[in-house]
Design a protein that fits this description.
It is a single chain. This protein has 3 domains: 1-35, no CATH class; 42-160 and 230-378, Glutamine Phosphoribosylpyrophosphate, subunit 1, domain 1 (4-Layer Sandwich); 163-229, no CATH class. The strands form 3 sheets. It has an 8-stranded mixed beta sheet. Strands 7-8-9-10-15 form a 5-stranded mixed beta sheet. With 398 residues, it is an alpha+beta fold. The protein has helices at residues 24-37, 51-62, 67-80, 125-135, 143-152, 163-176, 198-211, 216-227, 287-293, 295-304, 309-323, 328-331, and strands spanning 43-47, 101-107, 112-119, 140-142, 233-239, 245-251, 272-275, 279-285, 336-342, 347-351, 355-357, 360-361, 363-367, 371-375, 377-378. The longest helix has 15 residues, at 309-323. The structure holds glycine. Glycine is lined by residues 231, 233, 251, 253-254, 263-265, 284-285, 287.
């Protein structure tokens, strides 16, 4: 990827990094449209994977429920859904095959927060984050302590690893290890998955996916997840007719992570931040990058200084770009989407790249009486990773 292939879309302040501002007008117009459409309250926004349940959250809001209850209702849908492998049940596991979940929430009216990280066996960690907020003097619990607290509060232990996610994890193991998959003595032994050139590697991944029993219709997606470990997540922010607001974020984190790795989602101020006086923001994408720019807090503070939701989000994205000195050879491996809601109902969805894959743009789901899925406005045009992103190992290692 280079700047010639991936045109710089909305980079107003990035001229120094080599981009052109050719798309800035179009991007601003979309942002303006987003802001103007959101004049109606109540309003609820979330990542695109919450579209199926956003109406449930909106109904609660419209019926006068608490804003955090409404936001939690939305994210609970993907947490309960075994087919959403980015959160809760069916989330893609860590490198040891264990699903490890993180979540956080902020309640605007009471100015309180709760978070959990590295939790095993408890599906609805967004609700657990709320329990930490409501029933402890702490803000964050992690690991075993968080699980014991969940059991004490009446949550059920469940095996969160679905068959589908287990098979994709096994494919990842076989793709990255010499010791998983058929050994040398096996009549069906093939060369190591990752040896040879990119095309051979891809073909072997296809064959390994077949051997593992991954359905043909799921194989391409499974291979993509092996080659490009996803960080799928859901964030939701809700604002009621009285101007009260809350936010929450929940995730299974980076697929194949080292056990114990926490991303941005459980970090108050990174994956989620709500200030009752200003607005609410949350993130999905490369957690490590978002932690370093304290994304959600940065965005809310930007709005406090008078920036629009769109500009506030774009500024946070540009801070990520700045952390890499604008080096596109590295930035192509990162992605970040921010969901921004201001106290007056103006909102924006902004992303570093158009989508994770060509033809699958990042989206923000919005409900202000009408439910809709909108493309986010991206800083750069293109998918965040060339696909398949295969680099053949040097000959000396074969
Ligand atoms: N944004 C989710 C994560 O990186 O864990």
């Amino acid at each position: 990827m280079s700047m010639t292939r991936r045109e710089f879309v909305a980079g107003v302040a990035l001229g120094a990094l080599g981009g052109t501002a050719s798309g800035a007008t179009a991007a601003s117009q979309i942002a303006l449209k987003q802001s103007m459409r959101a004049a109606k309250l109540p309003i609820i926004i979330c990542a695109g994977n919450g579209f199926a349940t956003i109406a449930d959250g909106y109904r609660l809001l419209a019926d006068g429920a608490d804003t955090l209850e409404a936001a939690l209702r939305v994210v609970r849908g993907p947490e309960d859904d075994p087919n959403d492998d980015s959160v809760g049940l069916g989330g893609l596991p860590n490198e040891e095959g264990v699903v490890e979940l993180d979540a956080s929430c902020m309640h605007g009216p009471s100015r309180r927060a709760g978070a959990v990280g590295g939790v095993h066996n408890i599906k609805n960690v967004s609700l657990l984050a709320r329990e930490v907020m409501l029933h402890t003097g702490h803000v964050m619990l992690v690991g075993e302590g968080a699980e014991r607290f969940a059991l004490a509060r009446g949550f059920k232990r469940e095996d969160l690893l679905t068959e589908d996610s287990r098979k994709v994890w096994l494919l990842w193991k076989e793709a990255h290890s010499d010791w998983w998959g058929p050994g040398l003595a096996d009549p069906g032994w093939k060369e190591r998955l990752h040896s040879g050139n990119a095309a051979q590697y891809y073909q072997r991944l296809q064959a390994a996916a077949q051997d593992l029993g991954i359905e043909p219709s799921r194989r391409t997606a499974a291979i993509h997840k092996v080659l490009f470990p996803p960080t799928g997540t859901i964030h939701c922010s809700a604002l009621n007719a009285h101007g009260e607001m809350s936010g929450c974020t929940t995730t299974s984190g980076l697929a194949w992570k080292i056990p114990g790795r926490l991303g941005d989602s459980p970090i108050i101020g990174a994956g989620c931040y709500t200030d009752q006086d200003i607005g609410s923001a949350g993130a999905t994408g490369s957690g490590e990058e978002n932690i370093k720019v304290a994304g959600a807090h940065t965005i809310v503070e930007n709005m406090r200084k008078g920036m629009s939701p769109f500009d506030a989000g774009m500024d946070a994205l540009k801070r990520i770009v700045r952390n890499y000195g604008g080096d596109m050879q590295r930035l192509k491996f990162l992605d970040m989407t921010y969901y921004v809601l201001r106290k007056d109902g103006a909102y924006a969805g902004v992303s570093l790249w158009t989508g994770y894959e060509p033809g699958r743009p990042h989206t923000i789901a919005v409900h202000d009486g009408t439910a809709r899925l909108e493309k986010t406005v991206s800083l750069y045009e293109g998918a965040s990773q060339e696909w398949p992103p295969i680099v053949a190992p040097p000959k000396s290692t074969l």
